[in-house]
Amino acid sequence: MTETAELERLAKDLLGRSLEELDREEQDVLARVAAGTYIGIDADEAAQLHATLGERLADRVAAVGGSWGFIAAFGIVLLSWMLLNSGAVTAFGIPAFDKYPYIFLNLMLSMLAAIQAPIIMMSQNRQAAKDRVAARHDYEVNLRTQLEILRLSRRVDRFAHLFLQSAKLDEEGSVELDKLERRIARNGGKDDPLT
User: Any transmembrane segments, and where (predicted)?
Assistant: First the structure.
């Protein structure tokens, strides 16, 4: 049987549709089921293999920028900045380099936000792409599992049918054997084919 004919048969048997009615992913899954092959690497591995230096850097910046450690460290920096530029520290002879309303601090925060936001967006876009790949992978695994369960179910049904036929034949043979034994017993062993 050719590969296309086998795929067509599987499509009809397992999905109840012709091969042409299936989308590309379903056809690929059927081809892997027929061939007995498995899916390749998962979404995270595929993304890491094809990640550029900028994408890996964006992921690291997003990981650091979205952590409690960063928030705590940034809070300490802000408090230190305000303390160093407050009137309390100038009493010790330390000059304030950015007095209230902390214009230079606002400039630094604006620049940080302007740089950090697009980097985090790049990482989020990359994560969304990984999520789409993972969703396709999950769909394929679920479809493949469903197809394999259907195949096993049909195989078990065939075995059960054969077993029942065999049991019926055994029962019919047993009935015939009982009849023969009764006939022999009635005739006193004269009709015994073994003697």
Answer: 61-83, 103-122
- Using alpha carbons, list the distances in angstroms from residue 149 to 7, 37, 131, 156, 167: 17, 16, 26, 10, 26
Cis peptide before 118 (omega within 30 of 0): no
- Both structure tokens of 146: 């469903």
pLDDT tens per residue, range 124-134: 998 898 888 88
Angle between helix axes 68-84 and 103-186 (nearest 10 degrees) is 170
Question: Whole-structure pTM over 0.70, yes or no?
Answer: no
Alpha-carbon torsion, ordered 32, 33, 34, 36, to 10 deg: 80
Residue pointed to by tokens 């061939």: 35
Q: What angle do CA 87, 90, 95 make, to 5 degrees?
A: 120
Q: Do residues 73 and 65 touch, judged by C-beta distance below 8 A?
A: no
What is the C-alpha separation between 30 and 148, in angstroms, rounded? Answer: 10
Write out pLDDT tens, residues 64-107.
988 999 999 999 999 999 988 887 777 777 788 888 889 999 99
